[in-house]
Structure prediction request, 192 residues.
Amino acid sequence: MKPAIALSVAVGVAVAFVATIALYHADRQTRTCGPGSGKMAAFQPAEDPTPLPDVSFVDGDGTVRTLADFKGNGVVLNFWATWCVPCVAEMPALDRLRAHLAGRGIEVLALSSDRGGAAVVRAFFAKHGIEHLPVTLDQGLSAARVLGVQGLPTTVLIDGTGRDRGRLVGAAEWDSQDAISLVEDCLIGRQQ
Prediction:
């Protein structure tokens, strides 16, 4: 093969490779995630992922935080309460999910709607061995109202650009392989 032809073929292959990678990443950024399968069959992907309002909540130290504080990271945002039986059932799995995803660009937050505040949540975490989840509070259900949460537990998956990727109403096995795969599919690679 002549050097000019070989060079043309090599350049053509390189261009095709780069174009394929670009299309793959563009598709990962725009397609909806899910739907859920197996243990996550109840997950409802957002039909048109749209940016969420920058809701606020309070951390265990009393500091007001917002979703904007997590920009660039995916967020698994769970709404729960210590008096909610299905919420109590899924909390250990959410704790294990947070431990599993540590350092991967995904934050797991469980916003408690308990009126007793951080002390009630800390006592619950201690009693149930919850070690990885931070204490976070949805005081007055303000974040739940803004995001249209109608029941507990509800979990919203939010990508790194602040878009709603979908939600699951009801308890789930968040540490199952089905859940981990769903969270990774919806949130990893969407942080641009």
User: Anything to note?
Assistant: Residues 9-30 have pLDDT under 50 and may be disordered.
